[in-house]
Design the sequence.
């Protein structure tokens, strides 16, 4: 994709060590920026805001470039790149974190290139709410800001997180996190409580069971495409968010109907991402393949 | 509903002791027959095949009668009625069985009244495969036989269970059971393996995440209606199956389209059932209430 950056993604860039019951891979490209940008790249011009160390391999840069991801916002500094090491259980769903080495990510200050500040769509990937607020202070008037978060920030940075939530148009989080954030157990009550905090949309993610969108216009049940094999579920939530925002940016409209359709695209792209390790699924993927699976998924929802 | 019995339900009738984090109820009407017949009763004439002891309360019989359930197949014998005692965890999903007292159920021989043997629809609730086969030997030529099963029978009675599966038109079971039965982990592979065992349809249930239907015509993702409160999840799978078969019997057609719609009715009725203890939700429910929630659920699936 060429032209101005339409979607800015801020988050982590990582070199992950991933072990599944079937395979072990070391130093593979990961992080929320990588998955979200790759997923969005099929639909729109996406710019990455993140930080890597001087160990970051040329091959990873080439992966981004082949996908057409704009890298003006990617900082490269001395030191080692952020690394997550984890092991998936037999169910290929539950996982155990072995190590999180922040490395250069520890002193990350997400500064947006001038060319990104007018972008109409912004994804605040899962980084500290303080950094998310710092990003928000740099953008002009985005049409839709999506913020992702996680249990850690709910526990250790609730006040700045609440400020992010108040400023975001959509919050995405998983069901466990939604319960932590709101103190409610029931998912509908969680969603209603979050809408009361500011965003017009909340997406509660349920992993392989899909997600639900709740807005003032009601509920949309977002199905997960039932894949016939999973190699690496890492980054599925980021691919979902990136695919969603990419599809929304492509369409240009931001209303309930457009949001629903774009969320289906996100679900489809995420389902493709988990079928291979790291970003491998995305490397030979074309938009037509996504469209085919979208039609298939729609057929699975047809009464 | 009056007229001939269109749907026969065979299974357990129980007086359950149920404890949730919020409430404890003793001796409430339960068992697969109770939930499935109640759910089906809104759509069609349903007949119950089960066994109760002489402790079975008159109030429970009245509950069935008010719902219009035909009781010609309900045996009453000396002794105590089957009882399940269980405790739900804080999530209102996971549960622990405290006791299973078979009582009169231990010597249950499901004999169908003559008036049931021509019924076009048959639900073989979760009883031993040997008893399910005994029922199958008594029916003439049902249009659709649905068999439900559970982990216990997969472990202790695999051979007769395989015979039931081969004779059934649809097998319903949960995701864990599907994995046990087939040795596959992936849900699509589980479903394909089960279709290879004989049934034309398999429904894999995922509790509060809904279910999926797999047939030769593809996959249908059956969403669960997101309820805003759950009082007692007991029997949800039975209500789902009963509501499905009731709706199918009412429509009269048995094809992919009709099956999909009827499964949505099953999902809706099950979502209503869990909002109160035992069969309480069904006692003041009318078909119009079901239709309203069905329309709401369809709206939640609309792209």
Sequence:
């Amino acid at each position: 994709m060429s032209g101005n950056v339409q979607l800015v993604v801020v988050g982590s860039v990582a070199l992950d060590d991933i072990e599944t019951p079937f395979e072990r891979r070391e130093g593979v490209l990961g992080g929320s920026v990588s998955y979200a940008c790759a997923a969005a790249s099929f639909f729109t011009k996406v710019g990455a805001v993140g930080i890597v160390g001087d160990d970051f391999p040329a091959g990873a840069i080439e992966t981004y470039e082949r996908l057409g991801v704009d890298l003006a916002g990617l900082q490269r500094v001395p030191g080692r790149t952020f690394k997550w090491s984890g092991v998936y259980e037999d169910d290929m769903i539950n996982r155990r974190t072995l190590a999180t080495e922040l490395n250069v990510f520890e002193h990350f200050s997400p500064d947006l290139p001038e060319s990104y500040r007018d972008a109409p769509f912004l994804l605040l990937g899962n980084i500290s709410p303080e950094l998310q607020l710092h990003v928000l202070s740099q953008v002009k008037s985005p049409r839709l800001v999506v913020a992702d978060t996680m249990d850690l920030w709910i526990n250790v940075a609730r006040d700045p997180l609440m400020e992010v939530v108040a400023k975001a148009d959509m919050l995405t989080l998983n069901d466990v996190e939604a319960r932590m954030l709101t103190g409610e157990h029931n998912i509908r009550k969680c969603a209603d409580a979050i809408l009361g905090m500011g965003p017009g949309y909340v997406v509660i993610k349920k992993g392989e069971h899909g997600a639900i969108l709740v807005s003032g216009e009601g509920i949309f049940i977002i199905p997960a495409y039932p894949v016939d094999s999973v190699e690496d579920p890492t980054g599925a939530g980021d691919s979902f968010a990136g695919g969603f925002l990419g599809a929304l940016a492509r369409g240009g409209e931001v209303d309930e109907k457009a949001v629903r359709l774009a969320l289906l695209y996100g679900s489809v792209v995420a389902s493709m991402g988990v079928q291979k390790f790291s970003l491998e699924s995305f490397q030979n993927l074309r938009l037509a393949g996504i469209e085919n699976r979208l039609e298939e998924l729609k057929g699975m929802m047809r009464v």
Remarks:
- The mean pLDDT of chain B is 96.
